[in-house]
Amino acid sequence: MWPLTRHSPPPDFDPARWAQASVGQGVLAGLDESEQKRLWELAHEFLHTRSLQAVGGLELDDTQRLRIALLACLPVLGLDLGWYRGLDEVIVYPDAFAPERNWTDEYGIAHRGRMELAGEAWDEGLMLLSWHDVEAAGPLDGHHVVIHECAHWLDLQNGAANGRPPLHRDMDAQTWTREFAAGYAAFCAHPHRRCAALDPYAAENPAEFFAVCSELFFERPQALHACWPGIHRLLSAFYRQSPETRIRTTGHAR
Ligand SMILES: [Zn+2]
């Protein structure tokens, strides 16, 4: 265990521990040394200020805990942990989990049942992840469960998740709404033709469109740029990062 005092300074950057914790995760492979050190500090602050609990018989060692924290902090590498305000606890299941839920269908009929999930962001201070899916997210294929759930947390920072997180002062809300609404409508009409690289789940609703576009932005930024240069530009401005500088067009980290 890391020493869990709230304001203790992070341990000095350790390249060997970085290599262990980041192994197999394409999104972490192309970071330069200063980015690695910044992410290392954020990840340790994350581990000191949030509870990370393994459940369902899963045990996570320090390296695995650090891996989750590094991945969770990647979206805020250009921001800070204040952007995860309200996120108190990360619960990690061994595999996909199926919480019981109530829902109402389009005819107004109430149902209760279970749906299998790889991850979920709740606005009650919880993020749920499947360890199997965290590990499976390594290749740069446009899918990453941790980035997806973290994008929902950023979206939740100004109320309900609606696909528009709080924007920086130098960003224009109308431009954001216009670009994302147009992209979402075009994708819903012709998902494969409009952007074959984007997971069709993005058509679920505007919040999922933002989260799935964020996955593509971090994993295959050139593919997102080819589909929607405007959305790529807005995500660069929001995340204050340019993953295309560290991920080659082949989809491999530099
Ligand atoms: Zn989602």
From TrEMBL:
Domain of life: Bacteria
A matching Pfam family: Peptidase_M90
Coiled coil spans: none
InterPro entries referenced in this protein's UniProt entry, alphabetically: MetalloPept_cat_dom_sf, MtfA_fam, MtfA_N
Transmembrane segments: none
Signal peptide residues on this chain, from the entry's feature table: none
GO molecular function: aminopeptidase activity; metallopeptidase activity
CC terms in the record's Gene Ontology section: cytosol
Name of the protein in its database record: Zinc-dependent peptidase
Species assigned in the record: Acidihalobacter aeolianus
